[in-house]
Design goal:
With 285 residues, the protein is α+β, with helices and mostly antiparallel strands. It has eight helices and 14 strands. Helix 4 links the parallel strand 11 and strand 12.
């Protein structure tokens, strides 16, 4: 397999050979507007990682070389792994520094998503206000998602994203969602309309929901309804019960579409009662 095909098989969007000897960032199929993929090519050896999916670096070796120096490949792979670890440590340190620069305030992104009266961690910079969402693995901060006033999102360079989450804990059923706006709408519906407890896990990508679900006893997935069917496919692979908005978009889009909270309440309440009656969803007492 050619190195470009190897990278594409890992979901990295790449159409030409990268410069040799350096890590290069690329967009991925699951996040085409973010540079979530990392690639390094050394001629007869290459490395690839989709940070939303891959926990470890994948190694490519040229099929045309019948005398592969396996010891050299091992050394290169080890060095690459150490480099990734160092970048993750630097990103975690930077995330902690950024969180110390934030203050509680309003943000245009929250207003756009229907929560104009909500305040969150914002970072005032010369180029505008940045909404800062801390990402943790367990209790340890590993990075953050930064959202500018136009709604553009990015992670810190080199940070760990696989297994990282933001949790809203109200001692109830585990609910997996992809994005923060969806989490806000789910929290509003469950707390204010359904009067039900929840533990909402913001996973930041559909594929990362698999990593989060693997650590939990079970629950409900509020999947994004995208044209690619990625959210639904991942939910089915996880095997948990899931809810899919009836319109193209995420749960926040549906919440803001004008359909009304009472209609959403009916849909979710019917689903929850059906799942609980069948024993497919156990709600903590």
């Amino acid at each position: 397999m050619h190195f470009l095909d190897f990278c594409r098989a890992h979901g990295v969007i790449i159409d030409r050979m990268p410069p040799p000897g350096v890590w290069k960032r690329y967009a991925t199929e699951d996040h085409p507007h973010k540079k979530n993929g990392a690639v390094k090519w050394l001629g007869d050896v290459g490395f690839c990682q989709n940070h939303a999916v891959d926990v470890d670096i994948s190694v490519w070796k040229s099929e045309g070389d019948t005398k592969i120096d396996h010891e050299r490949i091992r050394r290169i792979a080890k060095a690459a792994d150490e480099e990734i670890k160092q970048k993750r440590q630097e990103a975690a340190k930077k995330a902690g520094w950024i969180m110390n620069q934030t203050q509680i305030g309003f943000h245009p992104y929250l207003a756009k998503k229907g929560f104009k009266d909500m305040q969150a961690d914002v970072w005032k910079r010369d180029d505008g206000l940045i909404l800062v969402l801390p990402m943790r693995i367990g209790s340890r901060i590993v990075g953050c998602q930064l959202i500018n006033e136009e709604g553009q999102k990015r992670f810190l360079f080199g940070q760990a994203t696989s297994g990282a989450e933001l949790v809203m804990d109200n001692k109830g059923i585990h609910i997996l969602v992809e994005g923060f706006a969806t989490a806000l709408s789910v929290k509003y519906i469950f707390k204010e309309i359904l009067k039900r407890r929840y533990v909402i896990h913001v996973c930041f990508s559909a594929h990362n929901m698999k990593n989060i679900a693997a650590r939990l006893p079970g629950g409900l997935i509020i999947a994004d309804h995208d044209l690619s069917r990625t959210g639904q496919r991942v939910a089915e692979e996880i095997g948990w019960p899931y809810y899919l908005p009836p319109i193209i978009g995420d749960f926040n889009d549906y919440h803001m579409s004008g359909v009304g909270a009472l209609q959403i309440r009916k849909e979710l309440l019917d689903l929850l009662r059906e799942l609980e009656a069948s024993g497919k969803l156990v709600t903590p007492k």
